[in-house]
Amino acid sequence: MDIVGELENELSTMLFQEVRFRVKIRSELYEGTIDGIRQLPDGKIELFDFKSGAIRPNVHAVAADIQLNLYTYAARFGEFKVGDDWISPRILPDYSSIYYLPNHRIRKRSSPQGQKGEEFGYPLIRTSKSVEDLRAFRKEVSNILKSMLKPWFYRNNSTACVFCQYTDLCQSENALVSVNTSSKANALLAELEMN
């Protein structure tokens, strides 16, 4: 890690560490644990999640990361468990970041990417989220929930669908399938022990 990164870590103030959260989206309660929220030396707030996977995510993957978006949404609109109490922090972090731990590994040999003895790279991958981004995330989650809670089964996009007698009842074949029709399809599937 470079000197700036080391100093930033040293001079930052941890606001929350391993904090439990809960937040509702479309009447569904989500709970989890956020690795950390800190105040940087320049006063900005950073929410971060440690990652240790084999492949370093790129900034585009981090920006679209559902888990990180949920954490950021919870910091703004949810509650944190502090001691015995649940508090509403109402924090909109300046950065929502992934801290990629494998970048702290030391290079065993020199290569075009770096010299022997150096760390693999800077571990932080930072993105920013606006309130509008969080609203778009809420809508995305809401749409996913709506589609998951429909009263019919979804086509699995198999080439075998052309042989299935229920293809015309699939939601993906007809977006206007009524609940009555889907109930009949589900009853038929239950009869065949397929649901």
Features:
195 residues; seven-stranded mixed beta sheet; alpha+beta; 7 strands; 2 domains
Task: Explain what the structure shows.
This protein is an alpha+beta fold and about 200 residues long. It folds into 2 domains: about 5-150, no CATH class; about 160-190, no CATH class. About 30% of the residues lie in helices and about 25% in strands. It has helices at about 5-10, 60-65, 65-75, 130-150, 180-190; strands at about 15-25, 30-40, 45-50, 80, 85, 95-100, 125. Strands 5-4-1-2-3-6-7 form a 7-stranded mixed sheet. Strand 1 (about 15-25) and strand 2 (about 30-40) form a beta hairpin. Residues about 170-175 have low confidence and may be disordered.
Q: How would a textbook summarize the main sheet? A: 7 strands, mixed
- Structural category: alpha+beta
Distance between the first and last residues' Cα? 53 Å
- Percent helix range: 25-40%
How many strands?
Answer: 7
Q: Please give the oligomerization state of what you see.
A: single chain
Number of domains: 2
Task: Return the average pLDDT rounded to an integer.
Answer: 83
Q: Which residue ranges are poorly predicted, with pLDDT under 50 across at least 5 consecutive positions?
A: 171-177
Net shape: flat
Q: How are strands sequenced across the largest beta sheet?
A: 5-4-1-2-3-6-7
Give the helices and strands as they follow along the chain: HEEEHHEEEEHH
The radius of gyration computed from the alpha-carbon positions, rounded to a whole number of angstroms, is 23 Å
Distinct helical segment count: 5
% residues in beta strands: 25-35%
